[in-house]
Design brief:
alpha+beta, 11 strands
Length: 219
């Protein structure tokens, strides 16, 4: 019988798994029955895969009462230097602390503050104050903040960002290019507009980056 995740925060669980020694990133895949289908983990090769799986099982049981089948855990062991987007202090995902936009005449300045591991990182972007331009500035400011906590010579480029109407909802969608020593990779993220467009644009931009933490692709 699968584990019911209805009352649990998947992102919180993934961050908790990243606190296990040697684990650098984790992603949980939910099944149609709202249970854990797969757990994918990237770790450095300092500990055997079987021990890592036992540590993961113990953490999930002790912290959340989740009893999982060890066969659902997939371990990929690579060197730290090969982990793209490895934050300076673990693989926890950034949280939004503030988004501020100032418009002066034709120009706008957007500041986004993100928090990661109790540290704040500020990103700023300036440009024309058109409606579409301001949305791009918000996404670029978020990426500017991300660049400050990412370890390694990586660059981020906003390919596109938009607010779309899907059914009864409005959804922010962002496409981000990550450029590093291994070349360029493109990632997309989305977020339903709930609080404000700016908040959702930042969340969509981070969702694209968060997907790299969850290894939808490998470096």
């Amino acid at each position: 019988m699968g584990v019911n995740l209805e009352d649990l925060d998947i992102e919180e669980i993934e961050n908790k798994l990243c606190q296990i020694k040697d684990v650098r990133a984790a992603r949980i895949i939910k099944g149609k029955s709202n249970s854990i289908e797969e757990i994918h983990v990237i770790a450095v090769p300092d500990k055997g895969p079987k021990q890592l799986v036992r540590d993961i099982e113990s953490t999930l049981m002790a912290q959340y009462g989740l009893n999982i089948d060890h066969k659902k855990v997939s371990i990929a062991q690579i060197n730290d230097s090969e982990v793209l987007l490895n934050p300076k202090k673990g693989a926890a995902r950034p949280k939004i602390r503030s988004i501020n936009a100032d418009v002066t005449g034709l120009n706008a300045r957007v500041q986004v503050v993100l928090e990661l591991n109790a540290q704040e990182f500020t990103g700023v972007s300036e440009g024309l104050a058109s409606q579409t331009g301001q949305i791009r500035l918000v996404a670029n400011a978020a990426l500017n903040a991300v660049e400050k906590f990412v370890q390694g010579p990586y660059g981020f480029a906003l390919e596109d960002v938009a607010i779309l109407s899907l059914g009864r909802e409005r959804v922010a969608v962002a496409c981000v290019a990550v450029v590093g020593s291994l070349g360029e990779q493109i990632f997309a993220g989305s977020a339903v507009v709930k609080q404000s467009e700016k908040d959702s644009v930042v969340r969509a931009t981070l969702d694209a980056i968060n997907r790299r933490f969850g290894f939808l692709t490998t470096a």
